[in-house]
């Protein structure tokens, strides 16, 4: 599945039983980021998710090149040194690139933003991948008061974004997850919290492992999913409209596929809890339940065993009756 498929499939998180809602990618991305945009293959802006971008009317920025508006500061993942090399890489590979840029806003102030770029690789009618046709992009303001990122001596739990991996911190993950509950209740839809852990791995190299796991999860999850770092060795993933049977299939895929993509092929175990519509428990409670299920899963797997999963249900930690093959 290409990044294009994942982006255009953002409405999957709002649908059940295969009935996909037609929710444009930019509409979803605009709710989740400070700036959401698309470019053509040369880096010229072709559309925005917001009517006002950095204080400018978005229509005023259409046709401008990304390098005119964003000052390339640093990269995080690929070794690129400018936007030209980023676009050249994205044109060859289906992967997400992330970095940091400095932006001059309409009022003349400067701000630092984390940027994510993914390639548009649409499918041709015969089912094959068509040529690279541009990028999807998102910006997150690193200077905003809400994003109180890591200062000297600040702990991970005091920030909105985990500075090492760029995903939500524990506190922010809980807040963002809780914001989904009202809509799910109105639509009478479930949701599932998966806690993916690598606590059975060797302590050496865990920071690198966390960064790589975060990158792999970004490549895999739906745009409507919420990803956060719960602690040093586990990530939380909230999935709208996901029921028990679907969660089981996803957990098995994660346990089977992720180790081979990570350094040292670590054991990945999962604890999960399914929230039904109308459940009054707070996100923090669900996270605690998922942590208990993860601890049980890691104990069953052991330090050298293959990863497995457990589901919290009425204070039991059993594997679900529904198998991943059903």
Report what the structure shows.
- By secondary structure, the chain is an alpha+beta fold.
- It folds into two domains: 139 residues, PAS domain (Beta-Lactamase), CATH 3.30.450.20; 156 residues, Alpha-Beta Plaits (2-Layer Sandwich), CATH 3.30.70.
- The protein is built from ten helices and 13 strands.
- The strands form three sheets. The chain has a six-stranded antiparallel β-sheet. Strands 10-11-9-12-13 form a five-stranded mixed β-sheet, with helices on both faces. A two-stranded antiparallel ribbon has the order 3-4.
- The protein is globular.
- The two termini are 22 Å apart.
- The N terminus and C terminus are likely disordered.
What's the short story on this structure?
The chain has 326 residues and is α+β, with helices and mostly antiparallel strands. It has ten helices and 13 strands.
Q: What is the structural class?
A: alpha+beta
Mean pLDDT: 77
- CATH domain class name of the largest domain: Alpha Beta
The gross shape turns out to be globular
Give the biggest sheet.
Answer: 6 strands, antiparallel
Domains, number: 2
**What is the topology, as strand order, of the major beta sheet?**
2-1-8-7-6-5
Q: Report the β-strand fraction as a percent range.
A: 15-25%
Give me the strand/helix succession. HHEEEEHHEHEEEHHEHEEHEHE
What is the helix content?
Answer: 25-40%
Whole-Å distance between the termini? 22 Å
**Uncertain spans:** 1-23, 75-79, 123-128, 145-158, 319-326
Strand count: 13
Quote the CATH topology of the largest domain. Alpha-Beta Plaits
Radius of gyration: 20 Å
CATH architecture of the largest domain: 2-Layer Sandwich
Looking at this structure, what is the CATH superfamily of the largest domain?
Reverse transcriptase/Diguanylate cyclase domain
Number of helices: 10
């Amino acid at each position: 599945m290409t990044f294009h498929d994942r982006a255009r499939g953002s409405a999957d998180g709002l649908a059940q039983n295969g009935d996909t809602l037609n929710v444009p990618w930019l509409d979803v991305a605009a709710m989740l980021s400070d700036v959401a945009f698309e470019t053509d293959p040369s880096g010229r802006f072709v559309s925005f998710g917001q009517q006002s971008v950095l204080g400018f009317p978005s229509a005023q920025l259409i046709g401008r090149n990304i390098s005119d508006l964003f000052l390339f500061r640093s990269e995080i993942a690929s070794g690129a040194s400018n936007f030209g090399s980023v676009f050249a890489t994205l044109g060859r590979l289906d992967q997400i690139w992330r970095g940091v840029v400095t932006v001059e806003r309409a009022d003349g102030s400067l701000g630092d933003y984390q940027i994510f770029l993914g390639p548009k690789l649409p499918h041709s009618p015969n089912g094959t991948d068509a040529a690279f046709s541009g990028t999807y992009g998102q910006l997150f303001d690193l200077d905003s008061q809400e994003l109180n990122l890591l200062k000297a001596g600040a702990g991970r739990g005091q920030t909105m974004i985990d500075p090492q991996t760029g995903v939500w911190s524990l506190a922010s993950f809980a807040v963002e997850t809780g914001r989904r509950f009202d809509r799910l209740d109105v639509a009478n839809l479930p949701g599932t919290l998966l806690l993916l852990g690598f606590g059975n791995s060797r302590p050496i190299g865990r920071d690198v492992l966390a960064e790589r796991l975060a990158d792999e999860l970004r490549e895999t999850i739906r745009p409507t999913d919420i990803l956060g770092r719960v602690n040093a060795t586990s990530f939380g993933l909230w999935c709208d409209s996901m029921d028990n049977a679907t969660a089981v299939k996803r957990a098995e895929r994660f346990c089977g596929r992720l180790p081979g993509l990570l350094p040292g092929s670590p054991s990945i175990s999962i604890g999960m809890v399914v929230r039904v519509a109308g459940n009054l428990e707070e996100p923090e409670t669900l996270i605690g339940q998922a942590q208990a299920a993860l601890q049980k899963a890691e104990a069953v797997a052991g330090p050298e065993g293959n990863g497995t999963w457990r589901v919290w249900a009425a204070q039991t930690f059993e594997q679900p009756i529904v198998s991943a093959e059903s």
